[in-house]
Give the backbone structure.
Amino acid sequence: MTPFMDKKSSLALALCVVLAALVVVFFWSSGNERLRKSDGRPSASEPAALSDRETKNVSLFFLREDDGLLVAEPREIAADASIVHEAEAVITELIKGSRGELVSPLPPETKLSQLFITKEGTAYVDFSRDLIDNHPSGAAAEISTVYAVVDSLAYNFKSIKKVFILIDGEERETLAGHLSLDRPFSPNYSLIAKR
């Protein structure tokens, strides 16, 4: 055997020993590794589920058909540091409609485009055109729609004193020809049923 072949054999033998050692270490360490059971709590890297978030109880006002009065229906929304986000959640839930026998004063096709609140406490609620395109006619229906929105916001957020309703970002004369929308509305709790 030549010295060159001797070095080559030694190198091959050393590589085989190192490879065998790595295989032993790999299989030995993987046998000791165990799966951790989940304790049901999200880890720091997992976002908390919506059901785990803090909630806030609110009252939404829907129409009682037999006497035309507004009736409070309790609902839970996600609590938020921003009153605007909570107010948006109230309007979104109002659009979804009653979970009981009450009538929704807003057509289900309605969308909330934007909501903002001034320092003076006037909430500007901008609805999609679907509100007027799908709104039932009649003065009573318009009054119910306007005050369901106004009272739901003012009742749940004491800093909201008045509500201005916009359609597609613009002022409108009326929703369906009866109640003037050219001014902000103060809440009218006399339209709410006294249980």
In short: The radius of gyration is 32 Å.
